[in-house]
Amino acid sequence: MEFLKFEKVKDGKYLKNYEITYKNKAGREKKYEIVSRRELNGIDDLGNAPSGVSIVATCNKKLLLLREFRMGVNRTIFNLCAGMLEKHETLEECIRRELYEETGLRVKSIKAILPPSYAAVAISDTTTYIAFVEAEGEISGHTSDNEEIEAHFYTREEVRTLLESEPFSSRAQMAAYFFAAYENF
């Protein structure tokens, strides 16, 4: 592939739309659209800065899942606690803040943080970390008026049932599958 041109076509509050003009293998000029959560200065900026974190939280051998309404699919789905890194915030601070904001829970321990992975490679350069944490405390309402979130801890058996009948985000579905299938998860 030969990149010919990279330009911003729309500047939204949370998403920026870009158009990439390139030559394909057959030598034909093509256009490709992407969105990014951040300002990109050129093709070399794509995928270089993680923007947030997804949190796989457990407590007393139960998995935390959120039931939340998502505008992009116009339905309530099961999802992981997640959020965006704020300016000058460390990854650990982001994990603690997001877990608390969305659930009222505190991080007891951070078990692992995976390197950044791509969230939606077909349409975006967004990369996020996946953190595995042990949570503690009581679930309470979240702090944002812009989200409908219901947090709950589920046993392995309950997760198996949800996987058969409920809609999930892909990351939450994968985390739920491994939680339900493997005792050491």
Shape: elongated
Number of helices: 3
Report the β-strand fraction as a percent range.
Answer: 35-45%
The tally of beta strands, per DSSP, is 10
State the order of secondary-structure elements, H for helix, E for strand: EEEEEEEHEEEHH
Structural class: alpha+beta
The Cα radius of gyration reads 19 Å
Q: Summarize the main sheet.
A: 7 strands, mixed
Global mean pLDDT: 94
Q: Helical residue percent?
A: 10-25%
Instruction: Report how far apart the termini are.
Output: 41 Å
User: What ranges have pLDDT less than 50 throughout 5 or more consecutive residues?
Assistant: none
Q: Can you characterise this structure?
A:
Helices cover about 20% and strands about 45% of the residues. The chain contains 3 helices and 10 strands; from the N terminus they run βββββββαβββαα. It has helices spanning about 90-105, 155-165, 170-180; strands spanning about 1-10, 15-25, 30-35, 50-60, 60-70, 75-80, 80-85, 105-120, 125-135, 150-155. The chain is elongated.
